[in-house]
Amino acid sequence: MRDVQDHWFRQAKREGYRSRAAFKLTEIDDKKKVLSKGDRVLDCGAAPGSWCQVAARRVGPRGSVVGVDLKSIDSSGLPPNVTLLEADLREIELESIGGTMFDVVLSDMAPDTTGDHFGDHHRSIRLCNELLDRAHIWLRPGGNLVMKVFEGEAYRDLLDRAGSMFSKAKGFKPVASRGESVEMFVICAGQLSAAERDQDGGGPTEAEQIAPPRPKPGPGWSS
Predict the structure, then answer these.
(1) Mind listing the pLDDT tens digit for each residue in 94-118?
(2) What is the rounded CA–CA span in Å between residue 101 and residue 93?
């Protein structure tokens, strides 16, 4: 197993990525097609920046990536379509990160692990639920979301909640994840509008009226 993990570490160095996590997002996007050229992307918990690197390459120069983390991220070597912000996501308003809703929200966030699997799991679930709480603020209708979670008893409830907010929500474990790791990625396609969720019985918001729908989830969602 150590040789397998060393492989991803060496591959990241060869390809100029800041961490092996780059290959997790690469595989997710290869199989689920969450990123498109020209997309505006929010990368939550972006340090050390490898997901920003992958996203920036995939959305191209017409797209943009905003990476946010509590820790400072070195901007050297990152493409010009990446903007970094050292901040607490819970305190960020859309206006402070460009004022335009995102096409894709990515999250490789995880709590500091303590060795208490039960506690670590529930802290991870809480992070994901906080992200879902803000999805309607940051992510445009039809947009996609990817978030890391630690598996455990509340995982199914999280997946069900995500499924009620998006056209599709599935769990996925990339091959670059450590075999013994409990990490899983919840991949959500096509955020439903307020009218579709029928939360308040009203029509779409002004932002939802402006934002054009994204294409339907592709064939990669069938597996």
Answers:
(1) 998 999 999 999 999 998 888 899 9
(2) 11
Q: Using DSSP, state whether 136 is helix, strand or coil.
A: helix
148-166 pLDDT, tens digit each = 999 999 999 999 999 999 9
Instruction: Give the catalytic positions in this structure.
Output: 148
- Three-class HEC string of 92-123: CCHHHHCCCCEEEEEECCCCCCCCCHHHHHHH
Q: What is the CATH number of domain 23-214?
A: 3.40.50.150
Question: Residues 4, 181: contact at Cβ < 8 Å?
Answer: no
Which of helix, strand or coil describes residue 209?
A: helix
Which candidate, 63, 68, 9, 14, places its Cα nearest to that of 41? 63
DSSP state of 215: P
Whole-prediction pTM value?
0.85
> What is the chain's length?
223
